[in-house]
Amino acid sequence: MIDFLSILIASIIGSFLGVMTGLIPGLHTNNLALLFLFLSSIYPVNLFFCILLVSASIAHTFLNIIPSTFIGAPEEDTALVILPAHSMLLEGRGYEAVCISALASLSAIVFSLLLLFPAKLILGKPINLYHTIEILVPYILLFISIILVITSENRLNALFIFLLSGIFGFVILSMDVSFLFPSSPLFPALAGLFGIPALVYSYKQILPPQNIEEKNIAIQRKDIASGVVAGGLVSILPGVSSAVATILALLFRKEKGRENTISILSSANTATNFFVLAMLFIILKARSGFAIAIGNMLKIEKWDRLLFPYPFNLLLVAIIISSIISYYSTKFIGRMVAKNISKISYKLLLRISLAIILAMAFIFAGVIGLFIFFIASSIGILCLRMRVRRSLCMGVLLLPLTLNYFLPFL
Question: Based on the number of CB atoms within 10 Å of its own CB, is 101 exposed (0-12), middle (13-18) or buried (19 or more)?
C-alpha cells in the first residue's frame, strides 16, 4: 500500500517530468515509460513509478500546446493545433490560445471522470460492446478518411494531398531503418507536414506584442464533450492515436472557429490519455507506451465491480492532482513565453524555430530524419499552394492504419 503523501509527492514529480516532455519537441512520455521500466527492475517500487508515469502523461497533454503555438513544433497529438494556435499568435493572442487549451484539457478530465462509469458499463459488463467496436475499426478509419476528403471544397486536390501524404506515411512507417535511427520517423514527418508550412506562411508577418491580460476564457461544452467522446473511442481502437480522435471530433462539430478547434483538439488529446489508462482496467488492453509499461509493472485487476479496483483508484487521484498542477503550470509558462517572445525579431524567431525542429528531427530520427523532414515539408507546402485543408495531411497516419487492416484480406 502507499499513503496519500507518497501519492502527492509522486504526482508532483511526475507532473514536473510531464512539463519537461511537453515543452521539448519530439520528446514523449513513452521515453519515460522505457526509463521507468528499466528502473523498476532495479528498484522495485513499481506503484510509485506508475504514479509518476500517469502524472507525466497527463501533464504532457497540457504543456505540449506551448511549443505548438510559439515555435510551430508539432508532435502526433498536436499537429493540427498548430494551425489555429499559430494564427492566433500572429494576432497577439498566443497566450489566449494557450489558456483555451489549458482550460479545455482540465475540463476534459472532469468530463472523462463523469463518463468513466458509463464507459465501464457499456464496454465491460453488462453490455460488453468492446468486441463489436473492435471488429468495426477498419471501417471506422475508412469512413473518417472518406468524410475528410468529401467535405473539402476542392475534392480532387483534397484526394491528391490525402493520398500523397498517406503513401508517404506508408513508406516511412514500413521502412526497416531501426539501425539508422533510434526513434520514430513520425516527428520529422509531422514537423514537415504541419510545422514548416506554418512557419513559411507566417515568415513575412510581423509578430505583434502579445496580450497577456487575464480575461474570461469561454469554451463550449459541446466542444469538450465531442473531444472527450472521440478520445474515449480512440482509446479502445488498436493502433489508433489521439491524432485520429481530433480528426473525428472536428468532422462532427459544425462550429469550427479557431477557439472551437483548439478546445476540441486539446480535450481529445487529454481525454485519450485518460481513457487509455481506464481501458487498461476495463478491457485489459494497453493502447499506448505508458499503458504497456504500467501493465508490465503492476498486476492489473479487471474492473468488474462497482468500486474502482486497486490501484486504479490511486492512479485516478494522481490524474486529478496532475491536472490541477498542469493547468496552472501551462498558464504560468505560457504567460512567461508570451511576455518575452515579442522582444525577439520574428524572422529571427522563425529561424530559431526551424533550427530547433531540424535539431530535434536529427536527434530523434537520425540523418534519414532530415530527408523525411524535407519530403514532408514539400508535401505540406504543396498543400498550401493547392489551397486545401492541412488536416488532409493526416493521411500520413490514416492511410497506413487503414491499409494495415485491409491488406491481409486483399
Answer: buried
> Which long-range contacts (C-beta less than 8 Å, at least 24 apart) are formed by 328-332?
329/15, 329/19, 329/59, 329/62, 329/63, 330/62, 330/63, 330/65, 330/66, 330/98, 330/101, 330/102, 330/105, 331/98, 331/99, 331/102
Total structural domains in the chain? Answer: 1
Number of other CB atoms surrounding residue 336 within 10 Å: 13
Collapsing DSSP states into helix, strand and coil, what is residue 176? coil
CA atoms within 13 A on the CB side of 154: 13
Sequential DSSP letters for 307-332: SPPTTHHHHHHHHHHHHHHHHHHHHH
| Residue with grid cell 508539432, as numbered in its chain | 74
Residue 257 lies in domain: 4-409
Type of residue found at 284 = L
- pTM equals 0.83
Neighbours of 291 (CB within 10 A): 23
pLDDT digit string (tens) for 330-344?
A: 999 999 999 988 777
**By three-state DSSP, how is residue 165 classified?**
helix
Instruction: Compute the C-alpha angle 14/231/296, nearest 5°.
Output: 50
The per-residue pLDDT for range 396-406, each reduced to its tens digit, is: 888 988 888 87
